[in-house]
Structure formats: structure tokens, C-alpha cells
Amino acid sequence: MTALVEARGVTRTLPGAVPVTLVRDVSLAVGPGEFVAITGPSGSGKSSLLYLLGLLDRPTTGQVLIEGEDTAGLSAGALARIRRERIGFVFQFHFLLPEFTARENLLVPMRRAGGEEAALQARAAALLAGFGLGDAMDKLPEQLSGGMRQRVAVARALANDPALLLADEPTGNLDSANAAAMFDLFGEIVADGRRSIVVVTHDPVLAGRATRQVRLVDGRVVSDTATVPA
Amino acid sequence: MLPLAVTIALRHLGKRRRQTLISVLGVALGVGFFIGMTSLMRGFQTYFVAQVIDVAPHITIKDEYRTPRIQPAVLAHEDGAVAVRGVKPRSELRGIRDARATIAALEEWPGVAVAPGLRAAVLLRYGARDVTATLAGIEPAREVRVGNIEKDMIAGKLDDLRSTANGIILGIGLAERLGAGMGDTITATSPTGAALSFKVVGLVATGIASIDNGEASVLLKVAQVLQGRPNVINAIRLRLADVTQAETLARRIERAYGYRTESWEEANKNVLSLFVIQNGIMFSVVGAILLVAAFGIYSIISTVVHEKARDIAILKSLGFTEGDILRIFTIEGLLVGTAGAIAGALIGEAIIFGLGQVKFEQAGGIIRGSGGFILARELWPYIAGGIFAVLASAVAAFVPARRAAALNPVDIVRGAA
């Protein structure tokens, strides 16, 4: 079975007078239906690895493959297209577009990808309603609570129905109840076995709810274990 | 449904309403002043040129030579090293030789009307006042085909020149300087000392100061008698059906007859070149206004890009390309420029309307009796100003937009986390 995303011997070094290596020789394959938590101390390269997997950054050496396709030779435009159609991002801060309502925040990437407006509208509404945001659709991000914003962000990440959802400390700004709800949500998202999620978190309790835990220290994978959700 | 990039651009600008408004206003003022000033300048210039074309002959053949005649010694040795020094323009009995034949020949040309004239300086005297003026001897029947003297007469009739013994038509400014009016008798003295009395039978106001203040017209025969130059014609004046051909035709005539032949463009070269300078000054001032406005746009788009760094990272993570980002921010500049161009057209209208309301007495000025600014109503300044504003805005926005497109989302996301 082809991995949705695969890193092969990926190293990322920031150039400079004193080069900083963020990720060292990491190999990791994530298949459909997997819920992977990347853990590790601050500065261990968790987020950097996530950006590499999400094609926001390019590795210094090594390859990143999306559904078996090597991305090294692709143009910036081609990478953007893959991000648009096959990858969804959730960041620590909700990162919603402040001038747009919840619904419009979903519609922005949808319209960019294209499609019939009525269908897009319906899909956006259905996604938000599914996340319990039916009443908040036409509110601006500043009018929403932290938990709601983050759910809108997750809904937006799923707007174009990507196979791969990448989340960088998605619960970092949430209280424990909201954080737990967020992880429940992730569990539901991968439940159909079609999608996979990679979450960067430093919270071991939450990481324990993933199906697989990858631990990074100093940019290297030190452990990669399957867990059984509690 | 607006394109996505336009929607995003509009939202960005909508969030910064005041700043956007000021940028739009900056562009609008530039465009508005451009339209207003252009209308003012072009109005005057077009009016002036029209008056000149209307009043003065399109081509004047004078009894002068541009360069001394080529000397026989030079002609005889065309390839020889012969130079004749100290040659002066030939001095002969002043006047165009064989003028009648020349006129007859020119009248054969299609679209050409010809009138003979004898123009010379005289001293006009009325009571104790002496004024020097150019006395033009004219043939009324021919003159009406060449000039507009009949239309420009504000008192009397051209025919009175013929029906009255020694009638004279004065420019309105000249009459004022003399203090003479209709029916008064004035004395004209030629440089040779001959003097004749004339009765004022008409007053002319052409709108061109040099004519109104310095010219008087009498019958050609009378002028010839006064100047003691019987049968002499020293100016042949032509009017063309197609005024744009004046310069070409003038050169042809000069080649054919040798006499100095001036088109209206050459005769008014000083004024026309003044217009060029005037336009140069106007366009640089207005260009500077628009340039400042463009910097305003640059400033707002730069600010938006700076403030929107995070949104740019989000959009990129959502799969927007560099081209998309470039488009969004360039469109923001274009929107400001377009809004400015439209508002500028309205401001331009308002300026033209305002200038139209200004009334003033312009005693002794170039244009008499207009009582205010002459304003041109043309479409092209609106289009040119608009295009310039939109282009300048696009360029001003493109620079920061390119910076926005080049932003690395990872740097921004790392910085925020």
C-alpha cells in the first residue's frame, strides 16, 4: 500500500554562518487511516518535520513523497497545487483570515481549488455544521471562542477533502476540555480509514490518543511505536 | 461572483478604510488636477490657435528674402572654391515683383484664396495723440476670402471702406489708444512724410492683442498713395481650405518664387513654442502629483503586506501560489488606482466647473471679451489621466506585492509560534 506521505532520509539544515540542522536523516511513512503523533522536547525539530511533510519547506537532502510521487523536482506552483488538493494544515494559533467569516474561511481554499459555487457553499456549511459550528458560520473569527476558532481551522483544513491532515500543536492554545474534544475530532476524521493525520504535540496524554507515536530528539527519530487508543 | 483574488483584495482594503481612502484621494487629486489644468491650458491654446487661424492669413508671402541671393561668381563656379563675402540681402524697390501675376497663378491652386496687401508702418494722429501702427492696404473683395475682418468688426462695415472716401478701420485697442471713435477723423503719416486724413468707418476686435492694438486697414490704393509706392504690393496673404497644409505649401511657394513665405505656424512660432514650454511645465507638475500619489499607494500596499504576513503564510499553506499572492496585492493597488481615477474624473469635472465660474476683466490681455477662462472639453485627459493613475498604481503595488509573494510561510509560522 502506498503511503500518503513518506520522508526518506530527510535532513533540513538552515544555512548561515553557523548552520543549524533542524531535522536529521528522518525516514517516516504515513499510510491511510493512521493517526500519528510526533512528540519530543522543544526544538527537537517536530514542527520542521511537519512543514517538510506538508511541502511548505523543502529538505536539504532526502526525499519527500506524496502518494509515492517524489516532490523534489516539482515547481513551487506544483507544490502549491498538492497542498491545495491533498494536504490540510492546522496551526497552533487558529490562523483564520480575520476579514472573512467562518464560512468564507472555508470557501477561500475551496474557491481557489475550483468547483461550482453552490456545491462549495453546501459543503462548507455541512463541514461547519458537522463540527458543531452551525450557528457560527457567518461570524468573524474575532467573534468566536478559542475552541470554536480552532474547529473552524480544522474544518478549513478539510475543506478540499485532503487525504492528509497536518496539525502543528493544534491544542496548544486550548484548555484541556477543548483539547480533548479536538483529539476526539481527529479520531473521527481518520475513522473512515481514508485519511491520515500527523499531529505535532508535546502533551503525552493527548499523544497517547493517537494510533502511532513518533518521538524526535535533536531532529532524529528515537522511537516509533504503535499505541492502542484508550 | 467576484474572482477570489479581487474578493481578498477588497477585504484587505476594506479593513483599512481610512488609509485606503487617503490613497484613493491622493490619486484622485492628481488625476483631477491633471484634467483641470489640461482643460485650462488646452482651452486657451486651442482658442488661441483657432483665433490665429481664423484671423490671420494661413500663409503670408513677404517682399523679403530669407538668404542673400546666390552671387553670379558662385553660380559660375559651382564646384570652385569661390566665396563672396559681405553679401547683403538685395536692396531694390521694395515690393513683390510681378505681384499680380503671382496672385493670379496662386489662385489657380485648388483650395487657396489669395489677397494682396501693402503693409507698412505709419504714425496715426488724433488730436494730440500719436500712435505708431501697421497700416494694411487691402482689397475688401479679396480680403474677406482670406481673413475674417468682416466677422470681427464690432462697429461699421467693411463695405464702408469703399463707399467712404479715405475710410479707415481701426483695431479696437488702437482706437482706444488714440482715443478715437467711429466717425472721427485721424491723420496718418507715412515714413516718407506724406500725410492723409482718414475717417474711422469701422472697429475690429479679433481677440489677438497684436492685431487689435497695432493694426489699421485702408483700401490698397489709398495705402499705395500714402506710402508713395503706387502699384506696389508687399504682402500676399493666403487662406487654405486645409490649414494643416500651410507649412508644406509655404515651403513650396518660397521655392517657386524665392520670397520669404511664412505659414501661420512660423509667424506664431514664439507663441507656439511657449505653449510647448507651458505644457512641459504643466505635465511635470501634474506628473509629480501623480508620482506622489503612487508613493502613497506603495506605502499602503507595503503596510498591508507587512501586516498581512501571517495571512500570506496561511494562504500559501492553503495552496495559494506565489502568483496568486502577487495578484492579490497588485489588484489592491489597481483597485486604489481605479477608484482614484474615477474619483479624479469627478474632481476634474468639479475643477473645470469651478474655473468656469471665475469671471474677470482682462484689460489689454491677449484675449479680449472672453470674461473668464476658456476651457477645453476633451475626453482624452480623462482617459490619459485614468490610464496613468492605474498604471502608476499597478507599478507602485507590484513592488511590495512581489515581496509578499516571495515570503516564506515557514519563517512566518515559526515566528508566530
Number of helices of chain B: 17
Order of helical and strand elements of chain B: HHEHHEEHHEHEHEEHEHEHEHHHHHH
H/E element order of chain A: EEEHEEHEHHHEHEHEE
Uncertain segments of chain B: none
Low-confidence stretches of chain A: none
Number of strands of chain A: 10
Strand content of chain B: 15-25%
Average pLDDT of chain A works out at: 85
Walk me through this protein's architecture.
- The complex is a heterodimer of chains A (about 230) and B (about 425).
- Chain A is about 35% helix and about 25% strand.
- Chain A has seven helices and ten strands.
- In chain A, the strands form two sheets. In chain A, strands 6-7-8-3-9-10 form a six-stranded mixed β-sheet. A four-stranded antiparallel β-sheet of chain A has the order 2-1-4-5, covered by helices on one side.
- In chain A, a hairpin with a 2-residue loop joins β9 and β10.
- In chain A, about 45% of the residues are buried.
- Chain B has about 425 residues and is an alpha+beta fold.
- Chain B folds into two domains: about 5-55 and about 270-415, no CATH class; about 60-70 and about 90-265, no CATH class.
- The longest helix of chain B is centred in the N-terminal third of the chain and has 39 residues, at about 15-55.
